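This section describes the prediction task in plain terms. A model, or a person checking by hand, is given the sequence of a single protein chain and must write out its three-dimensional structure as a string of tokens. No templates, partner chains or ligands are provided. The sample shown here is typical of the held-out split.
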Amino acid sequence: MDLAPGARKVLADEVAQPFRQEIRDAVAKMEGGVGPKLVGFLGNNDPAARQYAEWTAKAFAADSLRFELREVEELALEDELEKANADPEVHGIMIYYPVFGQRPSFFGGSHDDYLRDTVSAYKDVEGLGHYYRKALYRNQRFVDKEGSRKCVLPCTPLAVIKTLEHLEVYDSSLPVGERMKGKTATVVNRS
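The expected answer:
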């Protein structure tokens, strides 16, 4: 495939490698070399969601992290999320969407939107719940006043930023909001 002048195809592994190494190093320092546990919920028969769950399991195994896929009926998902929110052995929660698709919720929006907000902010690894959406909208980068605990950002926009930084296109020396000033980037993604 011919690329336009100045264009470059970037593979995710190239960008992710230093971050994955950082994770492996951190897990190796943990007691017993056992990493935190992510529970993924699959409440549908969507083949793409199942594939995503399988990729998650593979990546977690490669980085010595623990992953558990819980397949539940869609109507039982809310109760199962509450159990995982309260379980101290569960460090992160992820839902493989769509579950209800755009079916409306009594609480407003879609029922999938409601499920996103059901995940505890302490365990929301995707940054899709209300707390992190609000922080992203307000450009709030930390959850604490000291600036020591970063907000969780949704993975696709964060990956775009990390890729641009990797390519030295995203100028982190400029103020937030101006780091791409005068530049154009085209991102093609199958998410």
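For orientation: The beta strands are 37-42, 66-71, 92-96.
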